[in-house]
Amino acid sequence: MGKLFIVGIGPGDYEDMTQRAVRVLRECDVIAGYTVYADLIRPHFPDKEYFTTGMRRETERVAEALRLAQEGKSVALVCSGDGGVYGMSGLAAEMAVNYPGVTVETVPGVSAMLSGGALLGAPLMHDFAVISLSDRLTPWETIEKHLRAAAEADLVICLYNPASRTRRDYLARACDIVLSYARPETVCGIARNIGREGERAEVLSLAELRDAEADMFCTVFIGNSETKNVGGKMVTPRGYRI
């Protein structure tokens, strides 16, 4: 039997991939994944066999990767960031029970909360919550409950999937919820196109964030009551004496 590796490729730049991820991709027989993510790494692994699908075909993608592994191939299913953070690790583990003999191993990667945080400064130095605003798999009522709990607890909040063509107002809606608990001048940040062409970071207030443009290639950070703008960097103090 073969083996299925769930490989986190980080934010998109080859230099941000782990050495272990690179080794697995070099040694595997097949690379599977969402077309956009596969295209990011294809120039570095041009001689591999590829299997790709578009969005909303995750189950099909994992099933084919498991089938190829059951045939005896070594398969790397790539995910942006880390496969265990809004990635394919969970689905692969659930589906693998139907493919006897296939071993599934997760190769961790650098998630957007880490790479985006590094781009902005140091927003995650204290306790934080990570919440996806995509309601494709989670009802908005549940997302709103998570936002309220995190805001009331004064946690730094990292938002994945802040907006899309069909969810243009979701970031504004999220900010309105947080504004029920936080000051309008709360320091926030947006990391755009992390590790890709057009990469940039912007530090702004919560009030400004409410009306900011965002898309699926953005990761948004909402600071807590202690977060500061330090020379254009978003910094959440840990509490060290200086």
What string gives the helices and strands in order? EHEHEHEHEHEEHEHEEHEEE
Low-confidence stretches: none
What is the CATH superfamily label of the largest domain? Tetrapyrrole methylase, C-terminal domain
What number of domains? 2
The total of helices stands at: 8
Q: Which architecture name of the largest domain does CATH use?
A: 2-Layer Sandwich
* Mean of residue pLDDT values: 95
From the helix content, strand content and strand pairing, which structural class follows? alpha/beta
| CATH T-level fold name of the largest domain | Methyltransferase, Cobalt-precorrin-4 Transmethylase, Domain 2
**Radius of gyration in whole Å, from Cα?**
19 Å
Largest sheet: 5 strands, parallel
CATH C-level category of the largest domain: Alpha Beta
Total count of strands: 13
Tell me the helix content.
25-40%
Q: What is the overall shape?
A: elongated
Distance between the termini: 57 Å
Any overview of this molecule?
- By secondary structure, this protein is α/β, with parallel strands linked by helices.
- The chain has two domains: 3-110, Tetrapyrrole methylase, N-terminal domain (Cobalt-precorrin-4 Transmethylase, domain 1), CATH 3.40.1010; 113-235, Tetrapyrrole methylase, C-terminal domain (Methyltransferase, Cobalt-precorrin-4 Transmethylase, Domain 2).
- Helices cover 30% and strands 26% of the residues.
- It has eight helices and 13 strands.
- The strands form three sheets. Strands 3-2-4-1-5 form a five-stranded parallel beta sheet, sandwiched between helices.
- Strand 7 (128-132), helix 6 (140-152) and strand 8 form a beta-alpha-beta unit.
- The protein is elongated, with a radius of gyration of 19 Å.
- 42% of the residues are buried.
- The mean pLDDT is 95.
